[in-house]
């Protein structure tokens, strides 16, 4: 059990009220690895909270994925957020929030930065490095998730830094949260204001570089 009884009931009710059914698609080429097993266990537990609205698929990795990677998929296709590694601990709250964000319609009233994101005309990616014990990371990840929900040109990779030390070292991650915006790249650390984060993504979209 990941949640206590009270939180399990509360979150289960919220997930059962989703407007759209969702599939949690776990990509892995190492189904027997400790990390993939932990991810599948977490996803299976989540599905058990609202089996009428959620289901799980286990499939091989895509060409540009780290192992394991979890996508949120609706009848319209996969959304632009990837959970890389096992989103446990404090990141489980973010994982649940992502399901709420993608399983329900966008609110009619949006903050000012939502309009700014419409300036993005080319694909951009935000790699957000987090940890399962970071209390500041969920707020930053929530921002990225909402950005990607509003602007399909934005892809967000939520990377568990301690589970992928080599990738973290390559990206000079000295602490979490750390954000890399690509193309560029542009590096942000700590908890940037949404306007600041959005501005970096807009700037990244003007830079030459391969599609994410």
Structure description:
The structure is a single chain. The protein has 212 residues and is an alpha/beta fold. It folds into two domains: 5-103, Glutaredoxin, CATH 3.40.30.10; 112-204, Glutaredoxin, CATH 3.40.30. It has seven helices and eight strands, in the order αβαβββααβαβαββα. The chain has helices spanning 5-16, 34-49, 90-103, 112-116, 137-150, 165-170, 194-204; strands spanning 22-27, 54-59, 69-74, 77-84, 124-130, 154-160, 178-182, 186-189. An eight-stranded mixed sheet has the order 2-1-3-4-6-5-7-8, covered by helices on one side. The protein is globular, with a radius of gyration of 16 Å. The model has no long low-confidence stretch (mean pLDDT 95).
Please identify the top-level CATH class of the largest domain.
Answer: Alpha Beta
Secondary structure class reads alpha/beta
Radius of gyration based on Cα positions: 16 Å
State the domain count. Answer: 2
CATH topological fold name of the largest domain? Glutaredoxin
Average pLDDT for all residues: 95
Sheet with the most strands, sense and barrel status: 8 strands, mixed
| Form type | globular
Helicity range = 25-40%
Distance between the termini: 36 Å
* Strands ordered across the widest β-sheet: 2-1-3-4-6-5-7-8
- H/I helix tally: 7
Low-confidence stretches: none
């Amino acid at each position: 059990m990941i949640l206590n009884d009270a939180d399990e009931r509360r979150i289960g009710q919220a997930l059962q009220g989703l407007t759209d059914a969702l599939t949690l698609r776990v990509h892995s080429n190492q189904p027997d690895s400790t990390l993939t097993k932990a991810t599948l266990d977490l996803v299976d537990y989540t599905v058990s909270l609202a089996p009428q609205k959620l289901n799980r698929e286990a499939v091989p990795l895509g060409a540009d994925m780290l192992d394991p990677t979890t996508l949120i998929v609706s009848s319209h296709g996969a959304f632009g957020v990837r959970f890389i590694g096992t989103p446990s601990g404090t990141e489980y709250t973010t994982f649940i929030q992502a399901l709420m964000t993608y399983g329900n319609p966008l609110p009619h009233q949006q903050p000012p930065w939502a309009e700014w994101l419409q300036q993005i005309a080319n694909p951009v990616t935000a790699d957000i490095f987090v940890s399962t014990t970071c209390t500041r990371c969920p707020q930053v990840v929530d921002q990225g998730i909402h950005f990607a929900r509003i602007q399909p040109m934005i892809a967000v990779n939520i990377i568990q830094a301690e589970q992928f030390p080599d990738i973290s070292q390559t990206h000079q991650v000295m602490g979490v949260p750390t954000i890399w915006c690509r193309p560029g790249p542009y590096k942000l650390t700590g908890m940037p204001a949404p306007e600041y984060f959005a501005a970096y993504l807009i700037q990244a979209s003007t830079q030459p570089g391969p599609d994410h």
